[in-house]
Queue: 2 jobs
Job 1
Amino acid sequence: MYKAKAYSASSATSPLASTTIARRDPSADDVQIEILFCGICHSDLHQARNEWKEVMPTVYPCVPGHEIVGRVTKVGPAVTKFKVGDLAAVGCLVDSDGTCPECKAGLEQFCPHPTFTYNMPDKHLGGVTYGGYSDSIVVKEHFVLRVPSNLDLAGAAPLLCAGITTYSPLRHWGVTKGKKVGVVGLGGLGHMGVKLAHAMGAHVVVFTTSPGKKEDALRLGADEVVISKDANEMAKHAGSFNFILDAVAAQHDINAYINMLARDGNITLVGAPEKPLPLAAFSLIMGRRSLSGSPIGGLAETQEMLDFCSQHNIVADVEVIPIQKVNEAYERLLKSDVKYRFSIDMASLKAE
Ligand SMILES: NC(=O)c1ccc[n+]([C@@H]2O[C@H](COP(=O)([O-])OP(=O)(O)OC[C@H]3O[C@@H](n4cnc5c(N)ncnc54)[C@H](OP(=O)(O)O)[C@@H]3O)[C@@H](O)[C@H]2O)c1
Ligand SMILES: [Zn+2]
Ligand SMILES: [Zn+2]
């Protein structure tokens, strides 16, 4: 066991602050990583503030962070894919049972016994797992990803959650050239959804509540941008989409988007608002439309996404911040004021 520096929340209402945490010494199949950058996902904020108490209550202290890139500092003797000095990345999963049909199919995100990167029982040290707002982490090799060398590291970190969470449903629902795809909410996930759907060849329409993001949306790869508060603009797209990705973090009217789907169209929720969303049955019934959700992605697909991003030169648009600005960043997330992901430069933790 060794001590690592970290930032943690000690209650749902306290700001994050500097602390030290215990990390395990790497065992045979473990990789130890010096964390260089960690993205700030809106899930970090939901979890730190216990907004998902009904589904996964927060255990304090909570060290968030599941968009991790860094450099390998030590490997166990059974590790074969990584050596000291390699770049490495970790997303939302650090373990699973490895034996269930989902794990065997490489779909670890659906394992009934997953270990998420933070706030899940830690099998090694007891207590709960601690995430990437830290200078170091130890993770089983199977859950460590290779980082393509052409990607900027600060911008690559958000691929580990925002990237895979949008890539996976776009692939699952068959987004390709010729498909009309909507992306609702231009935040961390949404802006990745736009870049990826554009790279897959789709006609991409962004729905945003923020008129000031229009130019950015076009630059990121959108073909059209709709200000969702404008009923006339919204009406123009009725019944026309093959697929819509809903990446909104707060309460909003999903029925307005369901009505924009073509026959057999699908809307997938990746955003996870605190409270249930009302659903109008007729919106789904007319047009045999479907509504689904999608969680992150498995390890194989996460690597596929990183390689796809390497090939298409895609990283997140990031605002790099020192860890000392994390509380300010959370407040800005709540105001939809981020272009388009905060990425923490973990060198800033050395000053603590
Ligand atoms: N399914 C998964 O596996 C998974 C993985 C990661 C994250 N998530 C969840 O996905 C959601 C988005 O995460 P994120 O990190 O992308 O968050 P984010 O950066 O804060 O982006 C959310 C966007 O939603 C829009 N929005 C915010 N409040 C709104 C409101 N009241 N009405 C309508 N639109 C609103 C804003 O876009 P505009 O300014 O363009 O309107 C905002 O930028 C969170 O709930 C997060 O927990 C799920
Ligand atoms: Zn996330
Ligand atoms: Zn499993």
Job 2
Amino acid sequence: MRVPAIAALALLAAGPPVRAAVNVMTATEDLADLTRQVGGDRVKVESIARGYQDPHFVEAKPSFILKLAKADLLVVVGRELEIGWLPPLIQQSRNAKVQVGADGYLDASLTVKILEIPTGQITRAMGDVHPLGNPHYWLDPDNGRRIAKAIADKLARMAPADAPYLASRYADFDRRLGEAEKRWDALMALYKGLKIVTYHRSWPNFADRFGLDVIGYVEPRPGIPPSPGHTIELIAEMKRQNVKILLVEPYFDLKTPQSIGRETGAKVLVMPPSVGGEKEITDYIQLFDYDLGLLVAAIKETGAK
Ligand SMILES: [Zn+2]
């Protein structure tokens, strides 16, 4: 009987049944890329915030309510980074899976190293947008590694049959990130202790990891716009410590940074803190390649050390 044999071959050629991809929404593009790195073709991922936006202040477009309504998993940065825009989207999605604390809600900050956890009483009423520690923690590659692991583990619990695939994707990401870290360490080896100033407190994890010393901020407190008195003090301190580099996240007004640059001779360097912050920055490893490349070029240009 030849026909059944052919039918059997056709079945074999079709392969195992195709499972639907897990539908993932993330708060930021960094989390979206880390999800893609480990999830591969088993996930469909979209970020709500764009990498060129201030992640504290994102426009809560209603179109995201519909997308969240269909999501299986929502990955957030946490530490109240998204408190100004994400809660109403989650609530209005009426999707039980992704409500805070549900199985499909993953707070990436729970497995990473968090810096600047306040010791005293700090509330948002004081205007500080980092009341639970610094939420820009993805800018240390080891935290990126931990986030990727947390996402892989979560996806494996949601689709146990995919666990081996997810584990091998994670192992491959871990290996590529490790190789990149060697490259970054070699690039930054000469500049340990370099003094810089940044606009917002976006870079403590980055500075810690790459040996930079952030001696001041353009914002008097995270989320509080520059004030003349604070700017004058900052200029004096930058002159005293001979700071030649001022990092500015792409979504801040350059007026104050440029006047500080004129007064101190420091270079104003616009540096994106997220995947998607520039169109070349399409993934998490490229984010560091891009930023460290910009930084080293600025160091060489200004003769800072
Ligand atoms: Zn912040």
